[in-house]
Design goal:
alpha/beta, four-stranded mixed sheet, two-stranded antiparallel sheet
Length: 399
């Protein structure tokens, strides 16, 4: 009996001991926690392995630096800063292209255009580089391209709507050639183009407002010395037929008229959604200094501003309108004057830059910012013509 009691007591002690051991033993970790720990360890291992494998060596850093300098030299061959240091965004562009090991540079159209107008950079050789840049053939030695942002499409749509809304008073008024064009036209009627319509300081300031506007009627007697001429660039596209019908009714019987117009050219001429549409439209956007002046002046060369017509019109459509209607014209001659057109524009740029009297008169009347804008936009349009994205046409009609 006593032994049985002691045996039970011993069994209870063993049971208590086992229970105590079970209570103080460590609990197993949850499976989710183990998975997280393993993932962290794997990530740390892969990071260390990637750093050891792809860490830039001294040689790699030197190569990247050399590539950055080469790409910056390519930018410098096209544009040059007006100050002693490069703007930061051009440095970032070169570094980004060098780090990605790309042999091309994509410059923002907004950045380049605003920097040119803001006197931050200057085109080093616009007559040489702009046509190559517009045709995507600029390589010195890296290829340089323009990136067209969405903002430009919004601006183009807004401008198209504005031309549609304020076109009630549009009229075609034939004009005669510029007085100073006679000497050039007597020497060669086809090879020489009329001089720019910019006034000098010696001329009356009252006339500057009418001749300092962007050259919209650039076809002053390019084929015949005494011919009257007009430009369709200033006619809103949706009123083109109406204006031509009015012109047919107003021209006297037997008289001749030279009609000038600008159209898009090249393989992308019929593609509105192509980036070349925006690059071409920049030449025809209203000048900022003219918009400011028009807020205070109502008689400022109402026919001097370009419209969206050059972006949409085609030569066959214009010829069809001229030869139709109740009083159709007879087409005497159709000639591509793109070469003379480009020479005219480049001469305008040269006069704005090099002729002290013309530069002084323009800056005095419109301001330095306006002078810079006019110079850049005129060179831009000349580059488009040389690149084959724009074409100038002269049409001689007779009633």
């Amino acid at each position: 009996m006593t032994q049985l009691w002691l045996w039970r007591l011993g069994g209870l002690k063993d049971l208590d001991y086992r229970v105590l051991i079970k209570d103080v033993s460590p609990k197993p970790l949850p499976k989710q926690l183990l998975s997280v720990c393993l993932a962290i360890l794997c990530a740390m291992f892969l990071t260390a392995l990637g750093y050891c494998t792809f860490r830039p060596t001294r040689k790699t850093r030197e190569q990247t630096l050399a590539r950055t300098r080469a790409l910056l030299g390519s930018i410098y061959a096209v544009v040059t800063p007006t100050q002693s240091f490069w703007p930061s965004h051009y440095l970032c562009l070169a570094r980004s292209a060098a780090a990605s090991q790309r042999d091309c540079l994509t410059i923002s159209l907004t950045t380049l255009y605003n920097d040119l107008l803001g006197d931050i950079v200057e085109l080093r050789a616009p007559r040489k580089h702009l046509p190559l840049l517009f045709s995507q053939k600029l390589s010195i030695p890296a290829n340089v391209y323009l990136e067209v942002e969405l903002l430009w499409w919004c601006k183009l749509l807004w401008w198209t709507l504005s031309c549609y809304m304020r076109s009630d008073a549009t009229m075609l008024m034939p004009v005669t050639k510029h007085e100073d064009a006679s000497s050039a036209l007597r020497s060669s009627l086809l090879d020489n183009s009329p001089p720019p319509p910019y006034s000098k300081a010696s001329e009356d300031l009252e006339d500057i407002a009418s001749v300092s506007t962007p050259p919209s009627a650039l076809f002053y007697s390019m084929l015949y010395e005494n011919a009257r001429s007009i430009s369709l660039d200033c006619v809103p596209y949706h009123r083109l037929e109406e204006c031509i019908r009015g012109l047919q009714a107003s021209l006297a019987q037997g008289n001749c008229l030279t009609i000038g117009l600008t159209t898009r050219a090249g393989s992308t001429a019929h593609s509105f959604l192509h980036p070349n549409t925006i690059i071409t439209a920049i030449a025809f956007f209203p000048r900022a200094y003219l918009r400011k002046r028009n807020q205070f002046t109502t008689n400022l060369a109402s026919g001097g501003e370009r419209t969206t017509t050059p972006l949409f019109v085609t030569l066959p459509r214009v010829l069809a309108l001229l030869t139709s209607g109740p009083e159709p014209f007879k087409i005497e001659l159709v000639r591509n004057v793109s070469e003379e057109y480009a020479l005219f524009l480049w001469r305008s740029v040269d006069d704005l830059e090099e002729d002290r009297e013309i530069r002084g008169a323009f800056a005095h009347e419109w301001g330095v910012k306006a002078w810079r804008e006019e110079r850049v936009c005129t060179a831009w349009e000349a580059g488009l013509v040389d690149a084959g994205l724009l074409a100038g046409w002269a049409i001689v009609v007779r009633k």
